[in-house]
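Okay, is this right?
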Amino acid sequence: MSEAEVPRWRRIRRRLYWLLLLGVLGLVGLLPVRAGRALGRGLARLAVRLRPRETARARRNLTLAFPEVDEPARKRLLAASVVRLGENLADTLAAHRILAGALPVDEAGPSVIAEIARLAEPGRGVFLLTGHLGCWELLGGWLARELAAARLGPLGVVTGTVRNPPVDRLLQGRRRALGMCALPREAGAAPLLRHLGAGRVAAVLLDQRTRASNRDVPFFGRPAPTPVGLARIALRRRIPVLPVAIARHPEGPGHRVVHLQPLAVDGRSEDDLLAGCNAALEELIRRNPAEWVWFHRRWDHEETDD
């Protein structure tokens, strides 16, 4: 549907969302980071009240993922997830200041950048497997900065297009300002293949179904529609896949970047590699369940919202 064919009421709603985002962005820009987080928590709690359908979905998702956990514990986890979602929203909007030193972003364990450098080969590139876990936009900005410093950049990020053109332009502009190179999913595989063919690093968020080709693959023990593109390209071009995520620092106000062992690609089928990807994402989420966005339609096939 072209923009001209979008109903007027929907165009008005999209503009209101854009204006709201501009207002929040401006307000967070004026506040200290910690005060911005408090604002984010308040907005997230308000959103939960205003969007009961998404809240009910989050409860279902938590029940599917953690059937062994009792209902009071799942309620506490959902409440913690709302708090973290608001804080991570604020940190996303303040990413420039955080990366400039307002809050620490460091690594837990071996260096992610050193592992990427070890895996990288000319003409092959590296896939970074991640998801909507922690402050993922801040993770992209940190990786872009560190890869550039190590002469391994720029970081490509496979992105969807927000069906609100002003909001999409704003988000993509902020990503470019943080050093990320957007690789729109709607443009097909060619931009991603060119990026990888230059020996560069590409990040893919694989924890949502998309309008691209999907395949049902186990995730928390249940089939979940999973995009097949990463596995198909990784197997054909023997591109290593490194699972990576960001989490709030357990001992302070900053963030920590973590990674798992790279996933082997030799001798695997697409289904096997996709299962390995989902298993890696599941492990990262189980380590830090409060920071995954449980409001996603991960296991069902409802129509997407506008």
